[in-house]
Amino acid sequence: MKRRVVLDTNILISGIGWSGPPKEVLEAFLKEEFILLISESILNELERVLNYKKFYFIPDYLKESLISNLLKASESVKTKKKLDIIKEDPEDNKVLECALFGKADYIVTGDEHLLKLRKFNNIKILTPMEFLKEMS
User: Fold this and answer.
1) What's the CATH code of the domain at 16?
2) Which pLDDT tens digit goes with each residue over 65-106?
3) Domain range spanning residue 37?
4) Does this model's pTM top 0.90?
5) 3-state secondary structure of 5
6) Rg (CA), the chain
């Protein structure tokens, strides 16, 4: 059975902008090695962040292609309620919501608030490098 995974926005953006473990995680998704779970709030955040000036070097067509391919290739998750687990940065709760309601096995992130939890409702929270080791 394929693993069900939520990729935090920082992993998606790092994966398209740079080489390294986040890119390898994104490539594993593109090779259909796991099921990517995505919620509307994560998608909205991704679109918003991709339009920051600091990501000027990522061409618009690549940004649009990423969003469209993510929508086609991932499983859309409807989150049924808001969680209030991470007090320091309430925005991070959207990742937990997607993972919980999407019945995820893993959350892959670089976010220290999420990584500090290590586990949430039996969902492992890992860095890209840890996730790649777990996949091999």
Assistant:
1) 3.40.50.1010
2) 888 988 899 999 999 999 999 999 999 999 999 999 999 999
3) 3-135
4) yes
5) strand
6) 14
Between the alpha carbon of residue 124 and those of residues 52, 55, 134, the distances in Å are 30, 30, 11
Where does 6-107 have alpha helices with state H? Answer: 9-17, 21-30, 40-50, 60-73, 93-101
| Residue from 55, 42, 48, 53 nearest 16 by CA | 55
Bridge partners, 106 (sequence order): 5, 124
Q: CB 20: neighbour CB atoms within 10 A?
A: 11
State pLDDT tens for residues 9-47.
999 989 887 899 999 999 999 899 999 999 999 999 999
On whether the CB atoms of residues 110 and 13 are closer than 8 A, the answer is no
CB 78 within 8 A of CB 101: yes
Q: Which residue, chain included where needed, has tokens 């926005």?
A: 9
